[in-house]
Structures are given as structure tokens and as C-alpha cells.
Amino acid sequence: MMHHMAVDVLDLAERLWDGRATVDTHHPVGGGDAALVEVADGVAFWHGFSNVTVVDTAAGLVIADSGDPVFAGVLHERVRDWRPDAPLHSAVFSHGHIDHVFGVGYFDAEAGERGWRRPIVYAQESLPARFDRYILTAGYNATINRRQFGFDDLQWPIEYRYPDVTYRDTTTVDVDEPVTLHAARGETDDHTWTWFADRKVLCCGDLFIWASPNAGNPQKVQRYAAEWSVALRTMAALDAEILLPGHGVPIVGTARIRQALTDTADYLDSLHQQTVDLMNAGASLDTILHTVEAPASLADRPYLQPVYDEPEFVVRNIWRLYGGWWDGNPATLKPPPESALATEVVALSGFGAITARIESLLANGDDESLRLAGQLAQWLVQADDTSAAAHEIRARVYATRVEVERSTMSKGVFGWARRESGNRASR
């Protein structure tokens, strides 16, 4: 059974690489109750909502990441099916996002029951502050993740398994083979990539996820495109033979791994350089957003498709890192309340003229038309939030926008707007 499943995840990796399958249908952030698959001798891979790698060392099991709150118990069962009596020696958190840090509790409890030493959790030194912040902003995190993933009942956790060992730049895991941890800033400020040198196995966390890099997420804290690129190039120089990412499928083969990591670095460097050049020239955020484009030479790469995050959002994060919160438009420095602006626009134009214009924009259906339709529909509901007619047309605008978008980020926000107005229109 184990061998059969191994063929499946590695076969999917082949099909995604050569284009027989796509990340639109095999989304890197999906999965769930997955098999634990042996992808190399003593190395098992769990391809779930987030991925976990389990390595059987002479000192005990080492896991890179540990699963999300929903499926962590299933992961523990899968590990025990594979290695019934090997204690978990240590766990490495690649970063503090909750889909990667919730599996250790089951192993802690098991250690107590079986008289084993509790596993040692390793993480980069910025990770505990992330957990502190998650507790501080639990309500906000619940709100934005409900919106991003469409889970209206998501509860944000406020209890975390903090690491036992933190480090700044590099450290080693104390087992009977070389296992080195390397700090990086990329999707987060607390990233760790793990190198099993003797095995040539690289666990990169979310520094590579089989999608254009999640360096822009509209609702989350700062991301670090330039430093992310540096980490990718460092990993590309390792001659790894198996890359096991935080999301998406493995990559097998040194040449492929080097290509995927280098292409991703080139992609980020291009967005970063274009944005900084325009900032240095004094451009406004609006000009930059509508000028910078992802490199056309990498547009066909199966592992750089904008199905989760997208380049436009990465540009905003680069602006946010180097610039202030202001976008360069004097009207937005001290703007009127949005409802006052909306009321003014609707009064000047007339409700009927705006709805007619929205209809023609929806009929056009191109990206620019849909962006305009979204703004006009937003003004209608901000001018009169009690208007069922306004909510009805806003729901239709955002239903259309959900259909045409590819990224999880855009689909999440637009889907939330569609549901919000759909509920209001039908009251």
C-alpha cells in the first residue's frame, strides 16, 4: 500500500512538471486526509493541506513541520502506521503559520504515555513573537482567514506549542547524522529550511510552494521578496536530490530542483527590481501597480502560476517594505469617509446611470472593466447600505470576479463580498 501511494504522489509530481496536470486542478494549498508516502529510504512525505516530512534517523524520528489543527491527529496515526515504535526525537517548524505547527501535541502526549522524552521543537528565534501576536490579534486573524479561505466558522487558536530551541542564523539538530537548519526571511520573518545532507533531502517550508511566491498576501503582515530570493539561490546551490516543499508536490532530481528554485528567485528579483526602480523614479503606487509585470520568460512555468498569491500583491508588499502607508495620491492622504465619497458620486451620477454602466462593464468582461465595475458597485452600497438593489448588483459583480480570478487571495476576498451582498439582497 505504501509503495503504491508513493507512485501516486511522485507520479503527480511528474505530471505537473511536464504539463499533463495543472496546479489549477491540483492546487498546492488543498489536500487533507493524505497518505504518508515513503519517497526515499527512511523518508516519508505527507501531502496534506500543508505538507510534513518525517525522517527515520538512528536517534529517532525527525519531522520537518507538523501539520494543521484539523489533520494533526490523522498525521500522528499515519506516522505510527509507518513507524510504530520510533519516538519523535525532534520537530522543526519551518515557520509559525498555523497549518505547519499543530502536530506536536499528539507526540507530546504519546511521550508521556510511553515514558519517552518529549520531542524537542526547533524554530527560528522570531517564531515565538509570531505566536504572541497571534494571541493578541486572534479576532483579526479569524476574520481574515475566514475571508481568505471561505471558512465562515473558522476559530483562530490561542494556545500554541512554543519551541524548546530557537536559533538566529543556522543550527544543527542533535541526531546521528547531519541535519542543519538555516534561517531565512521570505513569506515570513521566521522561516527555516532544513537540509538532511547525507540524504540530499531539502525541506524548504513555504519558500517554494508550486505557485508564484506568496510574497504579497493582501491581508497578512510584511513579506520579504529580496531576502526570499537569496534563500532560494542558497538552496539551489546545494545539489539536493529531493525537494520536499511546505505545499505542493516533491521535486526529484538535482537539475529540476535547481531550475525551480532559481526560476522562483529570478521571478521575485524581477518584481523587486522593477518596483524599486519605479519608486526611485518617484512613481506613485498606482503607477507602479499598473506598470510592473511578472517576467514573461517565466510565464509558462508550471510551478510559478498565480493560483494562490499574485504578482500585483507582491508589488504592494515591496512598496510597503520600503515606503510609507501613503500611496502618493494627495486625495488619499486625508481622505473623506468612504461613505461620504460614495454618496457624492452616486448623487452626481444617479443610481440608474451607475447601474447601467456596471451592466455594460460586466458585458465587456475584461479585467479593466471588472475592476471598474467593482469600484462602482462598492460606491452604490457605501452610499446606501440598506439598498437591496445595490447589494444585488454588487453580488453579481463579485460573482463574476470570482469566476475569472485564478488566485486564492482574490477569489477569497471577492467571494466574501459576493456572500455579504447576497445575504443583504435577499433580506
List key phrases describing it:
single chain, 427 residues, alpha/beta, Metallo-beta-lactamase, Chain A, Serine Threonine Protein Phosphatase 5, Tetratricopeptide repeat, 7-stranded mixed β-sheet, 6-stranded mixed β-sheet, 14 helices, 13 strands, 46% helix, globular
What would your notes on this structure say?
The protein has 427 residues and is an alpha/beta fold. It folds into two domains: 2-268, Metallo-beta-lactamase, Chain A; 336-425, Alpha Horseshoe (Serine Threonine Protein Phosphatase 5, Tetratricopeptide repeat), CATH 1.25.40. It is built from 14 helices and 13 strands. The chain has helices spanning 2-18, 72-82, 104-114, 127-136, 138-149, 225-236, 254-280, 285-289, 311-322, 338-349, 351-364, 367-383, 388-404, 408-425; strands at 36-40, 43-47, 51-57, 60-64, 88-92, 120-124, 165-167, 170-172, 179-184, 191-196, 201-205, 242-245, 251-252. The strands form two sheets. Strands 1-2-3-4-5-6-7 form a seven-stranded mixed sheet. The protein has a six-stranded mixed sheet with strand order 8-9-10-11-12-13, sandwiched between helices. A hairpin with a 6-residue loop joins strand 9 (179-184) and strand 10. The radius of gyration is 23 Å and the shape is globular. The chain starts with a helix and ends with a helix. The model has no long low-confidence stretch (mean pLDDT 96).
